[in-house]
Amino acid sequence: MPDVTFTVDGKQVTAPAGTLLIDACKSAGLEVPAFCYYPGLSLQAACRMCVVRIEKMPKLQTACTTPVAEGMVVSTETPEIAQARKATLQLLLGNHPLDCPVCDAGGECELQDMTFKYGAGESLYAEAKNHREEQQWSPVVFFDRPRCILCYRCVRMCGEGMDVFALGIQNRGSSAVIAPNIPAQLSPDHLAHLDCEQCGMCIDACPVGALTSGAYRYKTRPWEMNHVATICTHCGDGCKTTLGVRSTSDGAEIVRGDNRDKSGINGDFLCNKGRYAFDFANSAERITSPLVRQSNGEFKEVSWEEAFADAGKKLRELRDARGGSSIGVIGGNRLTNEEAYLLQKFARTVLGTNNIDHHRTADYVTFAQALAGQQGRTASWRDTQSYPAVLLVGGDPTNQAPGTAWNLRTDVRLNKARLYVANTDEIKLRRQAKAFLRLAPFGYGALAAYLTGDAASASNAAADNNALESFRDAIKAEEKLLILIGSELRGADLKRLIEFGLTIPGAKFALLSDYVNSRGAADMGLLPDMLPGYVPVSTPGPFAEHNAPTTNGLDMLQIFEAAGRGDLSALYVVNSNPISRFNVDPAALKDTFVVVQEMFMTETAKLADVILPAANLYEKGGSVTNSYGDLQLVRKAADRAGVRTDFEMIVRVADKMGADIKSLVPFGKGLRADMGQSRGAQSGEADRHAVWLTANNLEPKLSPFDPWAILDEIQRLVPGYNLLRLQLLSGNDQHIEPEATASSSPGRRDLVLPSGDTLFTSGTLGRFSPALNDVQRYQGNEPLIQIHTAAE
Amino acid sequence: MPTLVSHPDEVKVISRRFGQGAAEIDKYLELDGYKAVQKAIAEGPEWIINTMKASGLRGRGGAGFPTGMKWSFVPKQSEKPKYVLVNGDESEPGTCKDHVIFLHDPHAVIEGTMIAGLAIGSKMGFIYLRGEYRYLLKIMEKAVADAYAKGFLGKNIFGSGVDFDIVTQSGAGAYEVGEESALMESLEGKRGVPRIKPPFPAVVGLYGGPTVINNAETIASAPHILLMGGEEYAKIGSERNGGTRLFGISGHVERPGVYELPMGYNLKKAIYDVAGGIKDGKKLKAVVPGGSSCPVLLPEEIDVGLDFDQMGKAGTMLGSGGIVVLDETVSIVEFALRTIAFYQHESCGWCIPCREGTDWIKKTLTRVYNGGGSKKDVANVQYLAENMMGRTFCPLGDAAAMPTLGFVKKFRKEFEDYIEGHKAGTPIITVEQLVGAH
Amino acid sequence: MSTITNSIFTPETAARFDRLVTLYPVKRSALVPMLLYAQDEVGYVSDAVVTEIAERLDLLELDVRNVLSYYSMLRTKPAGKYNVQVCTNISCMLRGGYEILDHCKHKLGIGHKEVTADKVFSLEEVECIGACCWAPAMQVNYDFHDNLTTVKVDEILETYRAGQGKDVK
After folding, report:
1. Which DSSP letter does residue A349 get?
2. Which residues of A touch B358 (CB under 8 A)?
3. Residue A685: pLDDT band by 50, 70, 90 thresholds?
């Protein structure tokens, strides 16, 4: 739309025609207050706080519903407007409980802020306030009705944003109330409840303390927490979550997770896992002391020194005696890139083995190879909320990547994007789809073949041939198409689908995986045949300096087969639970020396000879790469006495094995001269200076436990990871494109095992989250959840 | 059954067929029924709209928007179907004029709906009656069925090649639904909360299609106007206020009832001559001239013409034409409380100033009424009402604030005296009743 | 034939609802009248009514409850067989509306929104019912009674109690 120019508070402002005045003002740096307005959700004009004076209009106008027009003259702060806002606040406060001293929202409340600004200090009324008891709508959502100002943000967030429609408005006038979808009389405990996705977006949207989080309620005050923005450890979307952290006697506990400043790649969105499922970190079941198995078969708590020495000595002996190729290494999907890189480097250069793998939840090797030589063909997660057309083949983002589902719904709702969904199941996103193609069971490969011109595959792809044909024709007619691929597509099928997509000039691709750094684990070479950046083991190219073995190692299943044969002398597991995930017979490991870095006594940890208690993603710094290849900063939030980062433990074990730490972690580089003396007199400047130093690769990196030292090497050696440091350190996302070489490895197994997580599970980790368990139990409560709701 | 009244000053246009059994279609036909629609078909949309414009007919719901102009705003071309929506959600206290139209002349509403449909190029009309008017809905339903049976509705009406359907609809108790966009919401099966305007219904209305929404009396006037001619109709009324209007005179008068008087007729005459003066020879205290939302007039202010412009000049409104007469026994404090209690009950709750404002004014006045008031409360009520005026999402906030402001400004002393224990008038409502009902 | 198996409504009402949804460009439009007609038959809008209407209109039960709670004529608890609704709004108030209400309370021995023990009558104070010029007025179910006096109210209540009152639905 063409720009129009108008005047706000005497200032010339230009904005595209049709922009809402409230948004145009904001862009010009003029904040017009509002309760009910929420960008991207439908307009309400209900709170009347955004009233402004527009010349030639008889009454005050709401800025949230007025599109800007050429020559418009607007005042946003005059005595008349201030009085209108004050009067509205007085009316709200009349019945507001003013229990701010104990309210969760106290200090973060829009009603408080506006009252502070416009003043409504005098109470005009003598009548008693209407009181209603607080209601618990679900394990994680509480509703305190007297605090509610009826802005309807929650209702819209749930319906328009989440496509759940679990909240409504009932009664009218001063009795009007927000109501959940299970009325008291239909509930087994005669209390109103919510049957929904438990995402907590309603709480997030609430401008006051009416909707509060079951996880955070009455725990602390916002100003008593440190707020650390980091990346959620759960699914492959990699949302920014802000963790509220408070000191305890044994570290720092996480009290709250939320989307505090909405500055992340996830925009307004955060799902229940990002919001509540941080609590595994505070679990009493955490292992907080190194454990070494004794000759009687029992674990014994030992000192760190003893544990590292024990592991290091034994690994060295076994390597020297039986060769590196007798050792297997399994990494995790929730490690940082730096840790994953370090782990494979440790395996290849210290243990001397390519027997390294991780639980693969998508076939990124094929993905990278199929796109070899292409530029600008991989999609950022950001593209999912702006692309004009999206093809989703396989996957169920609503459950597996809720942020992706949110973006797709937003794209359809706000940009009228055309969404095409092909799936063997009736996934929920079909409700936003322009076309939904129901595939035959296991029909993904046939669909890929059909799309590349194999007409004979049609009958194996979908039962309805006409639907199949028109679906294909519709996507072929798109010029800019985002192709989102579920983990069902692997190997040759995936390759074929991408081959088809490449015939569409404006197509971009993304492959969805299951955990925060599943993509990073693959990118960083936790693979038996691929070095970081999908460089084949046989032709190490930039990695030749490591002098690692050049023959492919054993993959995940081969490692356990070798163990079963008695050929595996040692197994080193970092943040993974393969025994449970791959259903391995524990007896297979009876003759193998097992070292496990883990938080909890998992099925795998139980078989260990040495357990090294590990910190989780919320207790360390580094970077992670989401499903799409968007690289983001992980910041240390919490702390727990008795655990160490996987990074440190790998280095310590390598040290005990006698490895040259300086070549494993190239620390000590950078500007040696700067030890802080040039940082200025004011302490406030120190941080900025440190950021600048780090960004320019000049920070001292004084210890071998500094992940940035490995990031230097990643930047230097891994194809595609030519990242911008300042972008990373500022907490912004940046898109990384793998630069693989097209190479075919016949007989290569993709070994993809989708985790099959739901909204309320998160692999082994999820089992240790009380919040997830509560919500799962709650949503599985049949007598409660029996009425017709949209949440399917 | 409502009693019919008459007075020599009446000019019977809309009420021409009242009391003659015109609810029966044959009788209606005998009394020139369905002639106007046939004329409309013969003359075409432009003629209809020009005639309506010439008639000076202004919306009888209360806002007084010129009907011809409203119809002309509907775009000629539209991708979505266009609709006619008849507002029979008559709910403004003091108003019962549509009641008698539905009762005595239902076919005039049908014929008017068809004419509006022809004017804007719509093929479907809805006639929405408030839920309480079930017996009138039955009458309307029968009239519509009879019209279908005669072939007047449905396919190819009167051989015009045009189809037109009418659906009658029942509300279920909500004053707010009388607001045109809330009416559309209700008809779409939703809560009766108004819509954001613009877009106006003429552009985006019912089911997203261009929609003309008219009050039942407005619609029922259309056939008469087409038959008598716009100019003729205009001549009956006053300047820029064409024709006649049904005025419902209620309260303390000798002969309450619905009278059809020319626009601009003198209010004082309407009360003293037409309605027979103040009941039982008492003294007049005040007049609420156009339904409960209109600011009150003092006895010395009622020598004024009953049309939109003159009433506006007098600082009040013509509103829905429901004239409520208060004699000297009335306590204004009580009357103000009863008025705000209604708006508090009917506020849809959507926006803060109306939802909270009506509630707090009611609470404050209740306390004052119960003897717990202080002088500050009068100022406070005025402050609340002033801060509702023009600030709410829809006109209901104004409808509640305007009469309140009228009462506290014109009867301030009575409020203050009341607070000090000198109660004027004879309060009727008991404290128990106040607690019980609302 | 009803489109709903095991409808809770009588076959006539079910058939009427089947037809009702076909009248509008969007079937949700039938919601408000359907709720009222269902109430006429069942006596109130029960949970079963909500469930069936939601099903008929492809709505969530929550949608139905949101709408239902908005309209003052719709109730979620049973009323008496004859629901006496006395208007006390301004025009009626000026001509004795409160006196009529008080009289009904006395006569029936119940208060606002209460039901007599024999469930024959319930009482409600209502807002303007559009009978201002014939005030005071009340409705018994849907039937209007105007120009009321206490004597007239007694007669009307007696007629209903004797089962001879009109009861148009």
Report:
1. I
2. 173-174
3. very low
Among C35, C51, C62, which would you mutate to test the A interface (most chain A Cβ atoms within 10 Å of its Cβ)? C62
Determine the 3-state secondary structure of A246 from DSSP.
strand
- The per-residue pLDDT for range B219-243, each reduced to its tens digit, is 999 999 999 999 999 999 999 999 9
Q: What are phi and psi of C15, to 5 degrees?
A: -65, -40
Considering the domain architecture, whether residues B190 and B53 belong to the same structural domain is answered as yes
- Interface TM-score (ipTM) > 0.95: yes
> What does residue B243 show for φ and ψ, rounded to 5 degrees?
80, -155
Residues of chain B with Cβ-Cβ distance to A94 below 8 Å are: 356, 360
Separation between Cα atoms, residue C39 and residue C71, nearest integer Å: 12
Q: Give the chain C residue nearest B126 (alpha carbons).
A: C24
Write the CA distances from A252 to A226, A233, A390, B5, B185, integer angstroms: 10, 18, 43, 84, 53
Q: Which residues contact B161 (CB under 8 A, 6 or more apart)?
A: none
| Residue A569 forms contact with B (CB below 8 Å) | no
pLDDT at A792 over 50: no
Judged by CB atoms closer than 8 Å, whether chains meet at C70 and A788 is answered as: no
Does the beta-carbon distance from B191 to C67 stay under 8 Å?
A: yes
**CATH code of the domain covering residue B284:** 3.10.20.600
Geometric angle at alpha carbon A583, from A582 and A584, rounded to 5°: 95
Based on the structure, what is the number of domains in chain B? Answer: 3
* Residues B263 and B306 grouped into a single domain: yes
Cβ(C55)–Cβ(C5) below 8 Å: no
Q: What is the pLDDT of residue A110?
A: 96
How far apart are alpha carbons C92 and A566 in whole angstroms? 97
CB C119 within 8 A of CB C83: no
**Least confident window among A216-225, A674-683, A707-716, B49-58:** A674-683
Strands A211-213, A141-143: parallel, antiparallel or unpaired by DSSP? antiparallel
Query: A160 to each of A38, A152, A261, A275, how far by Cα in Å?
Result: 12, 12, 21, 20
For residue C66, give the nearest of A168, A186, A787 by CB distance.
A168
Q: Are B62 and B183 part of one and the same domain?
A: yes
- Stated length of chain B: 438
Nearest CB among C55, C60, C70 relative to A789 is that of C60
Radius of gyration of the CA atoms of chain A, in A:
28
Q: Note whether B169 and B283 are same-domain residues.
A: no
- Give the pair of three-digit tokens for residue C45: 């809008």
Which domain does B361 fall in, by range? 332-436
**One-letter amino acid identity for A54?**
I
What is the reported pLDDT for A744?
A: 66
* pTM recorded for the entire structure: 0.94
CA distance A392 to A419: 7
- Specify whether B225 is located in the same domain as B250: no
Distance (Å, rounded) from C-alpha B225 to C-alpha B61?
A: 18
CA distance A45 to A49: 9
Q: CA-nearest residue of chain A to C66?
A: A170
- Contact (Cβ atoms closer than 8 angstroms) between residue B426 and residue B331: yes
pLDDT classification of A680: cutoffs 50, 70, 90: very low
pLDDT at position C166 over 90: no
CATH number of the domain that residue B61 is part of? 3.40.50.11540
